[in-house]
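Please go through the protein record below and see whether the fold suits the sequence. Record follows.
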Amino acid sequence: MIKTGLAVTGSFCTFGSILSAVDDLVVHGFDLTPIFSFNVAKLDTRFFKAADFEEIIRQKTGKLPIKTITGAEPIGTSAGLELMLVAPCTGNTLAKIAHGITDTPVTMAVKAQLRNDRPVVLSISSNDALGANAKNLGLLLNTRNVYFVPFSQDAPTTKSNSLIADTSRIRETCEAALRGKQLQPVML
């Protein structure tokens, strides 16, 4: 079993594809520890109610999600996670990771993982990744132990700054990251 943190942030429209990726990871031997951002833990949206999503994740992983910063802080030492997956990774979370801001359970979990020289995989889902967040994307593409699920523009004519990861490649990206490799091409 590959002990993996599953950090979920608030790109709620992608949760369906993330749940499919969770199923694929579990079937292939990933032992997932869920970590929720504050918004994922609390907000009811047109896609999922917070309590319903938490229950689905609990059923799929066999674990309740970590929903506090203090709960996420010891991840780097006591949990012994081999890998951290942030899926989906919003532009807000991308910016916080790029600048070392740890004000949510997810960003604390990522910090804990990176400070212990362990891989972090980001599955980007951001409407401004090629706009205001482009500099943060560039920083993280060049950051040691940070890997990206291959991504592309999801609607180039209507949302020219938007990027979305190919969530069907999450497991493949995680396996490559465990070997210290970035899956290529990273931009589809």
